[in-house]
Amino acid sequence: MFTFVVCNASFIELITPIPKDIKYDRQKALLGKKLFSDPILSRDNSISCQSCHNLSNGGSDNKQFSTGIDSKVGNLNSPTVFNAIFNLSQFWSGKAKDLKEQAHMVLFNPSEMDVNEKELIQKLNKDPEYSAEFKIIYMDAVTLDNVIDAVVEFEKALITPNSKFDKYLRGEMDSLNKNEKKGYELFKSYGCISCHNGVNIGGNLYQKFGVMKQYPDFTNQLGRFNATGKEEDKYHFKVPSLRNIALTAPYLHNGSVKTLKSAIEKMIIYQVGRIPNKEDIQKIEAFLNTLTGDKPRILKDL
User: Fold this and answer.
1) Of 140, 164, 226, 258, most Cβ neighbours within 10 A?
2) Does the pTM exceed 0.85?
């Protein structure tokens, strides 16, 4: 379902600004912040959540594929954790209905954190700081559910409001220059907005990869089919958010596209069936660069 708002009473938008604040439990989130960056959550203490979701630059790791436990390399590009709370589901296939399921799956995935629940609880209980914090925040202290709850509460707080485009949507028309405004008009006229809309400018629907034309060198990943088993879901993926897109290269589910310009060109050709010219691509890129928001406020908290 699309969310519609009136902007400046002159036209209807399919994109809404990120809220400036979001409700979350700050005490839990600060504990989750520590856990997120601590390799203690992995079986051999070698990687953390931050290993794949770098909070200092876009919430992803800028690699084609991320590396998990025992140097195991995945086969899907790690999406940004920023603004993930606004997605209809998590993972490219949507196999996790929310951040809680996503965190659980990552912790127990043999190619990612590969944690053993009993060993994890023992490690956290042996740490004086963690043991004390969990006892203060949770009545039942250190449990798997509480670990996940704290991490999710932190991830909930990872929103990036106040991008130039958000300010534009709120009525600050001078926040975008002429080229950026033209880029937004082209973004709409080419049809990109049919999939990239809503508060996250994506993340709210599934779409076939290669709607109008089969993509070359396709890796044959089955996408949504892996979550549903339905034949009609083959090669469908969750549409990625375009928030902070300038910071999250490489692009596509398989991380095969290195630059934003190339991603724009390829998506217009294969998803909407048109051939863009270089000037239009440059202006759309200028618009997409306005989607970089403020760093999440919680990252500034001690």
Assistant:
1) 164
2) yes
Residue 299 lies in a domain: no
Which listed residue (13, 101, 112, 185) is catalytic?
112
Q: What is the DSSP string of 24-88?
A: --HHHHHHHHHHHT-GGGSTTS---HHHHS-TTTTTS--SSS-B-GGG-B-SSPPPP-TTGGGSS
Angle (CA) 252-80-212 rounded to 5° is 25
Question: Is residue 302 situated within a structural domain?
Answer: no
* C-alpha span between 164 and 286 (Å, rounded): 11
Q: Are residues 201 and 276 in the same domain?
A: yes
Write out the two tokens for 160: 């990036």
Tens digit of pLDDT for each residue in 108-123? 999 999 999 999 999 9
